[in-house]
Amino acid sequence: MALSSITKKLIMSISGLFLIVFLLLHMTINFFSVIDSFTGKYGAADGLFQAGCDFMALPIVTIMVPVLAAGFLVHIVYAIILTAGNMKARGGYNRYEVASKAKAESWASKNMFVLGIIVLGLLAFHLNHFWAKMQLNEFMGEHAENPYALLEATFQNWWMLLIYIVWFCALGFHLCHGFWSAFQTIGFSNKIWEKRLTYIGYAFVAIIVLGFIAVAVNAFVQANCCCGCC
User: Fold this and answer.
1) Burial letters for 109-135: b for 16+ Cβ neighbours within 10 Å, e otherwise?
2) Is residue 145 part of a domain?
3) Is residue 230 assigned to a domain?
């Protein structure tokens, strides 16, 4: 039986919220590398970032990878279905329908699909840099590469740092609208909570985006620092 448009949006919203929680966890573990830089344990075996990577390598976490991949797949498939439906109904590419005209006029809400494509494209790029050389290696019974060395190898060039910052910003714009829209779809948003959720979403997204950027910039500094104090 074909799913209704509301059901499709609900599935997409729930999968999106699931991915947002993962992003917060992922950013937190990566940010441990920044903390290590200030505590003098950057690159050390007992550093917080190393401990976070060891945690992510635990079997109970590793088995969550297929679940996470399924969440991404569901989110992407329903984004394509909803966008195709909107294009067919409106005679061209347009944003998702939202109740608030103020939200509908935002740039992010009008370009969610395009932003999603950018995020997805660079996600594959990112997985090749880190996941394929750490969790995938361990899954295949091979030795995982040093996480600190991977950070420095990835961000040692300014142009790579710039590419990632653009990606983080695109992710931020996508999340800004997605956060509010997801809560509206599941029925949590109302006149009282609409503004609150908007500002909570902005704060939440700012923490995620700035956290990821701080990790990238810190790795760039660590990779290019010439003095012995770094």
Assistant:
1) bbbbbebbbbbeebeeeeeebbeebbb
2) yes
3) no
Alpha-carbon gap, residue 200 to 198, rounded angstroms: 6
How distant is the alpha carbon of residue 162 from its chain centre? 17
Distance CA 167, CA 164 (A): 5
Condensed to tens digits (0 to 9), the pLDDT of residues 203-221 reads: 989 999 999 999 999 999 9
Q: Which one, of 22, 44, 25, lies nearest residue 33 by Cα?
A: 44
In-domain check, residue 103: yes
Spatial separation of the C-alpha atoms in residues 41 and 38, rounded to whole Å: 8
Angle, helix 193-224 to helix 147-155, in steps of 10 degrees: 90
**How many Å apart are CA 160 and CA 121, to the nearest integer?**
15
Domain with residue 145: its CATH number is: 1.20.1300.10
Span 131-141, pLDDT tens digits? 667 766 666 66
Whether 166 is in a domain gets the answer yes
Interior angle at CA 117, CA 111 and CA 118, nearest 5: 90
Q: Which residues contact 7 (CB under 8 A, 6 or more apart)?
A: none
